[in-house]
Specification:
The protein has about 130 residues and is α+β, with helices and mostly antiparallel strands. The protein is built from three helices and six strands. The chain has one domain: Nuclear Transport Factor 2, Chain: A. The protein starts with a helix and ends with a helix.
Amino acid sequence: MTTTDLRKVYLAYLEAANARAFDRMGEFVHDTVVFNGESVSRDDYVAAMRQAVESVRDYVWRLDDLVVEGDRVAARLTVTGTPVREWLGLRPTGREVSFTEYAFYHFRDGRFEHMWYLLDTRAIERQLAG
């Protein structure tokens, strides 16, 4: 894939995630994905995404930076929403949160097979505490 093609695939993935079109994840994610070093099925990966959006009302990923090099993608995203259930071991307080997520992907055949991500959980804790 060209850099332009891979950029389009990632933007379509992000659009599908924000639209909660989880039935489309097969277009973007291999059947098995190595997720933060652990091999999981695509279904388990999608279940983790569903848990996040069910736990945080109006969970939205906004792309701030995107770097594509070869078969690798790096993204810096701002995530916003209001936790309504316990999430990441944190109890909801009714406050909205906004935090940074860094995500790195390795693609093969137009879908990613490795993903690493990091959330700024301290920023979330501070915002929930008020």
